Amino acid sequence: MALNLLMLGPPGAGKGTQAERFARLRGIPKISTGDILREAVHDKTEIGARAKAIMDRGELVSDDVMIGIVRDRLERDDAADGFVLDGFPRNLAQAEALSTMLKSINAPLDAVVAFNVDYAEIARRIAGRRSCPTCGTIYNVHDAGTLGITHCRNCASSSLLVQRPDDNEHTVARRLGVYDEQTRPLIEHYRAQGLLREIDAMGAIAEVEARLRAVLPQCLEGARA
Ligand code: AP5
User: Ligand 1: which residues within 6 Å by Cβ?
Assistant: First the structure.
């Protein structure tokens, strides 16, 4: 059974971390618009060049560009059995476009998971986030399991782990403002459609993962052990 999920929440809430785990569990792709844009910046594509300054300011890249990116990605074969969307939609215009796209490929959303985390914890998680510049694996300096590591354990790259350029205090404040103004209204939008599942995303990664699975029992049928 195909499974189409969407993760919604403020920056640093842990959406990407849980989307990755859930997608792996189900054998479906995690589609992160932030990751796609960072790859475009890294590869110095035209979209990447235009997006970089916007991302560095903590603003949203234009709806046209983002809708085109997601449409192309959803049309790839590996999304036929489902997907976990992370970072899209970010506003009502993107949500309407997604709805139209999903209707046209007959792939309705099964659930939208909203992550609830307080702002002090968001600040702590973002300040501690580090990622591998080669494979993108995410770490956190506050995570006891990876305390003190400087290089990626996943791909054994010789490059040092890095901090995202938009993970500085000024840009994070703007990203939170943009979330409150433009993205938070999507919670009520999806609640009205009966799709919303809210989870307490405070606590350890494994605890949040257990809560995520608990609100999606029907979504675990056919999951990998
Ligand atoms: P994007 O990459 O989507 O950033 P974001 O929404 O701000 O989300 P984050 O990646 O910061 O957080 P996350 O919730 O995924 O947290 P994570 O799991 O990494 O977007 C970046 C930019 O791209 C935007 O600002 C915009 O410019 C542009 N963009 C993207 N999509 C767009 C769109 N649709 N339209 C327009 N523009 C768009 O976790 C954070 C840290 O905490 C990690 O270190 C992790 O290890 C740790 N952690 C996770 N869970 C826990 C836990 N339970 N306990 C302790 N630590 C934890």
Answer: 9, 11-17, 33-34, 37, 54-55, 58-61, 66, 87-88, 90, 94, 125, 128-129, 138, 140, 166, 175, 203-205, 208
